[in-house]
Amino acid sequence: MFLETLSTLLDSTLATIYMVLVAGLSAFIFGLPIAIALTVTSKGMFYENPVIHKILSSIVTIGRSVPFVILMVAIIPFTRFIVGTSIGTAAAMVPLSVAAIPFFARIVEGKLATINRGLIEAAQAMGSSPMQIIRKVLLPEAIPGIANACTILFVSLTEYSAMAGAVGGSGLGNMAIQYGYYQFNTPVMMQALVTLVALVLFIQFVGDFITRKVSH
Prior knowledge:
mainly alpha; MetI-like; transmembrane helix; Methionine ABC transporter permease MetI; elongated; transport; MetI-like fold; AA_ABC_Transporter_Permease
């Protein structure tokens, strides 16, 4: 019995880590360009465009405003189209990624907005192109902020993954509900909870360490 529970706990932990990593990578790949686009099209920037900025900002705001549990249910047809099923680890990664992209984009946009505009103006005065400013000024200056945003993202995704487990996903949330709550097995539920908390604390520790290392 102990070995069976330990095996379930290990499998659930690995499933949670896998979901979080894939969704986090998806958020970084798609969310970072959106954040950059929001920044460079804002007022006073070199690609200033109120229409595009407003459209992107509205999409991000709407994406962030939908509760995750509702989002999971609402995009079930899309999830089935992408992975062929609406339950399990693969299915949970789709809504996790969809929720993470606007979340990450908005946080990074805030980090980019704190960069000293004088640095951008100085780069423009030296004849730097917009893409050079993005690559050599905006992104390097924002590295500590982006590292912090990644920490917030992965912590949030770990929490979301637990909710995904409660409604057909896998991972520690599913273990706590299916093998703990539904079977009135409090020790199993507590094991999943403690492991989930430990995972969040580990992510926060590593994220804070990296953020300190890359800070100017």
